[in-house]
Every structure is written in C-alpha cells, then in structure tokens.
C-alpha cells in the first residue's frame, strides 16, 4: 500500500525578482513591484509530501520526526529570516521565484530520503499563490 505523508513548515524570507543581465526597465516591466531593489518579503508555507510503502514493522511510511528534522536543517535553518538573493548560495545566480525556490527545496530534501520515496513540494508564497514540484 502506497500512502502519502505530509509535513507543513514555515519560513520568512526576503527576495528580489530580477535578472542581472537585464536593464532595470526590463526587470521592472517583467517583475513589477517584485523588482524592488530594496527587496520584499513573504511568509512562506511549505508542504513536503512523501509517498511510499507502509513499513510492516513500524506502520510508518517515514517517521514524521525524521521528515521534520530534514526540513528544519535543509530549509528552515537555511532560508528562515534570510535574504534569498544575498544569503542563500543556491540563489547567487538563480532568480528566487516561487517556482525556483520549490525546485531548490526539492533538490535539498530528496537526497536525504529513501530513494524509493516519491517527494512532492508545495510552496505557498501567499495564501492564494503557490507552486508544486515533484521532480522531473
């Protein structure tokens, strides 16, 4: 039986959406207020969903504490109260859109899991704007 386990997490972070190789005017036309040179912030909500077989010995797909600890070390400690553009190495040359943040989170968590697990990341940038990524 394949079952999906979900874990919610939260982090606050600032970012600016822009491309270094574009003029300010082009960035402003494409990214609007999100191109603010002084950055802006979000209260991100994350849902990490792990799908796998139920272990007959434990009754778990994954120990939720294990998933919680992975999210804390790989996401919350790395992103919370940070300027993504400036303080998070993964975004040095990658525009920190919600889409790209979700892929980065996936790539940080996936190697820490049993390779037989399917991982899906849902990232809420606002209560109404969110993205989902589940690998290639």
From TrEMBL:
Cofactor(s), names only, from the UniProt record: Zn(2+)
Signal sequence interval, chain numbering: none
Pathway: Purine metabolism; 7-cyano-7-deazaguanine biosynthesis
Residues at the active site: 34, 81, 125
EC number: 4.-.-.-
Binding-site residues for Zn(2+), renumbered to this chain: 15, 40, 42
GO molecular-function terms, A-Z: 6-carboxytetrahydropterin synthase activity; metal ion binding
Keyword terms of this UniProt record: Lyase, Metal-binding, Queuosine biosynthesis, Zinc
Cofactor notes: Binds 1 zinc ion per subunit.
Gene3D superfamilies referenced in this protein's UniProt entry, alphabetically: 6-pyruvoyl tetrahydropterin synthase/QueD
InterPro entries assigned to the protein according to its UniProt record, in alphabetical order: 6-PTP_synth/QueD, 6-PTP_synth/QueD_sf
Catalytic reaction equation(s): 7,8-dihydroneopterin 3'-triphosphate + H2O = 6-carboxy-5,6,7,8-tetrahydropterin + triphosphate + acetaldehyde + 2 H(+)
GO biological process terms, semicolon-separated: tRNA queuosine(34) biosynthetic process
Lyase found in the keyword field: yes
Family note: Belongs to the PTPS family. QueD subfamily.
Protein name, entry field: 6-carboxy-5,6,7,8-tetrahydropterin synthase
Species, as recorded: Winogradskyella thalassocola
Upper taxonomic lineage: Bacteria, Pseudomonadati, Bacteroidota, Flavobacteriia, Flavobacteriales
């Amino acid at each position: 039986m394949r079952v999906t386990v979900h874990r919610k997490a939260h982090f606050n972070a600032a970012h600016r959406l822009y491309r270094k190789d574009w003029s300010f005017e082009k960035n402003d036309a494409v990214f609007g207020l999100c191109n603010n040179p002084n950055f802006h912030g979000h209260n991100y909500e994350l849902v990490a969903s792990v799908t796998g077989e139920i272990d007959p010995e434990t009754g778990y797909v994954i120990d939720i504490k294990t998933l919680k600890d992975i999210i804390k070390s790989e996401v919350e400690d790395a992103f919370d109260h940070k300027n993504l553009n400036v303080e998070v190495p993964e975004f040095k040359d990658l525009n920190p859109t919600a889409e790209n943040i979700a892929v980065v989170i996936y790539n940080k968590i996936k190697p820490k899991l049993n390779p037989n697990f399917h991982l899906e990341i849902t990232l809420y940038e606002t209560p109404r704007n969110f993205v989902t990524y589940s690998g290639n």
